[in-house]
Amino acid sequence: MSQHDMTQTKQDETVYRLDNLTCGSCAAKFEKNVKSLPNVQDCRVNFGASKMTVYGKATISELEEAGAFDQIKVRADQQWSAETKKVPFWKKRENIQLLLSAVLLLLGALSSYTSGEKEIVTIALYIGSIVVGGWNLFLSGLKNLVRLQFDMKVLMTIAILGAAAIGEWSEGATVVILFAISESLERYSMERARKSIRSLMEIAPKQATIRRNGEEITLSVDEIQVGDLMLVKPGQKIPMDGKISLGSSYINQAPITGESIPVSKEIGDDVFAGTINQEGYLEIQVTKRVKDTTLAKIVHLVEEAQAERAPAQAFVDRFARYYTPAIMLLALLIAVLPPLFVGGWSEWIYRALALLVVGCPCALVISTPVAIVTAIGNAARHGVLIKGGVHLETAGSIDTIAFDKTGTLTKGTPTVTHFEMLSEAETKESLLDIAYALEKNSQHPIAAAISRYAQEQGGQTEKQVTAFMSVTGKGVEGKVDDILYRLGKPSYIAESLTNALPESIQQAVERQQAKGQTVMLLTNEYQVLALFAVQDEIRSNSADVIQQLHRVGIKQTVMLTGDNQATAQVIGKQLGISQIQSELLPEDKLAQIQVLRNQGAKVAMVGDGINDAPALATANLGIAMGGAGTDTALETADIALMGDDLQKIPFTIRLSRKALRVIKQNISFAFGLKLLALLLIIPGYLTLWMAVFTDLGGTLIVTANALRLLRVREK
Q1: Nearest-angstrom CA–CA distance, 23 and 18
Q2: CA separation for the pair 606, 604 (Å, rounded)
Q3: Signal sequence: where (predicted)?
Q4: Could you tell me where the DSSP H helices lie in 560-639?
């Protein structure tokens, strides 16, 4: 494809929302039909999100014609949430048809009781029930049969028409009613699972008050541009992502991050669409268009995750592709072979029809996607983005979790707790000025702590640094007043000195390390000048989270840190970590993950999504503590925590494990139910309507089982 063609395709990309998309096979068929339209280059239908992306040009009427086989309705993306409000039960055409069909079936049963099954009136009532309730089913089933596309509607159509052909009118009408109920329940269950997406989309207001050219106007969020000044009063939701330019307030970020405690925001702080301004009046400069906001990105990620097939779902889909034709072939053999030897054509045809009905793979096909959509949607509502069914399943099988220390188990904002002069060669103020000059441009948390402390405690002299060099994971060096200074870990300083660290200095280092503090030494080319002891405060819930993880079945927790062994041991013991790896460079963390995997462990890595990217990618599962709006976290990890809250990790593991159990339960139940029903058909114990009821019950049970995932909450 040429560059021009690629640009044109991108420009012609349109997103639509779909109503009445009830099954995965329907979605695949609809996608195929849309791709065959003359001006469409490509199409992707997302069944879980009820969403379609079309590359090319097509009218709504053309798209709906492509989905006419299942009465699929197509809406523009921006109209979806506004136009899909709850429709009263009596106004839904399929429900009216179902009720009318049920009334005719009851009248037919009454006529059968009073006048007999063979009376014209009785048969007419049953035929009316079959036609009214099954008209759409027959149209789809017959079209698919002609095209040799063997789906569940083909099976049901043959079974119902076959029942009518052998005079089993009441059975045929009952099958129609029960199948319609099954379809209705399937629609309800998928709609319930999709609510998580729609609720996310409706979090942010659709309009905002903007000040332009000194005038306050109310605009649709689609019309707002980057740089516009947005006015938000106390109690209002923030419509767009932006940066506060006037005012301060507490912002409730629960809709985005899941954290319950409001966050203090001041001038210069970022705020996100869908969060709630609780107290002060704010003026906010818009930094992102509506389609690029953090909320929009979350919705997109959740929808893409729900579209991605998990291994279990992929297996079921492949199985169903061969299973349905096999059931049809087996039914044909049962209808034809036994009567040739023992007679009784009507009886064996009836059993074959029962096999077609009970062989319908409804419960099996829906067993996995409804669980995945429900679990991923529930996680998103709690501020956890699981980026696909495959990652959901992986999280359910994790037995080892490795944590980066700084910013993950700790708050990531270390402070200097102890300063000690080790030489009289310089004054305290001069040493602090040198330390500030060396560390002021570094982004490392420990460097920031030292420069902040030096600025607060030292003199006011701004010293210039030349020949500056940063040694990753060790420290920094540079010339101040033509003298070379180094500031870094004791091991790095010992390497740079002609002789090893003096005994007195080594003891001073060990005293601070024994308290769980990280030690940094300042030296010139000849001697150690000063000692900085830095401590990063442990998050208040870190120890509780580690205990919870062990309780939910995580076999080992591992802490990976660049800190010295003594500091790492103190913190690790306080938290109850089962394995502690210290003095690691970034590449060493990756190597440790590989070692754990080589030992047979299923490893999840928890980090901040930036400097831990290699380890996150190497682990079986990468979990990023990114915080709201951190693009790196959203892009790097398999799971992103929208709030820097470790409490969400045990919740995610519990949800994933329950989802895995539910998927296995559903598949096992669906298979077992089919096998039992098939065994009962051979001796003739299973009637046609009982076969449908079995299929309906199976669909209902696996759906209800999957919806239990909505009840998983944070503890």
Answers
A1: 12
A2: 7
A3: none
A4: 565-575, 586-598, 613-618, 631-636
The two tokens of residue 437 are 């000059």
Q: Which two tokens stand for residue 181?
A: 């109920």
Q: How much is the pTM?
A: 0.64
Which one is catalytic: 404, 612, 638, 695?
Answer: 404
How far is C-alpha 245 from the chain's CA centre? Answer: 33
Q: Which of 453, 469, 474, 459 is nearest to 426 (CA)?
A: 459
**76-310-396 Cα angle (round to 5):** 120
What are 297-322's pLDDT values in tens digits? 777 766 665 555 556 556 666 666 67
- List phi, psi (to 5°) of 127: -60, -40
pLDDT tens digits, residue range 458-485?
755 678 888 888 887 788 999 998 899 9
Q: What digits encode the pLDDT tens for the residues 587-646?
A: 788 889 989 999 999 999 998 755 676 788 788 898 887 654 455 556 667 888 877 788
Q: Could you tell me which residues are beta bridge partners of residue 415? A: 535
User: Is 608 a catalytic site residue?
Assistant: no
What angle (nearest 5°) sits at the alpha carbon of residue 183, between those of residues 179 and 189?
Answer: 140
Residue the block writes with tokens 């940094």: 520
| Site of tokens 């319930």 | 192
Grouping H, G, I as helix, E, B as strand and the rest as coil, residue 161 is helix
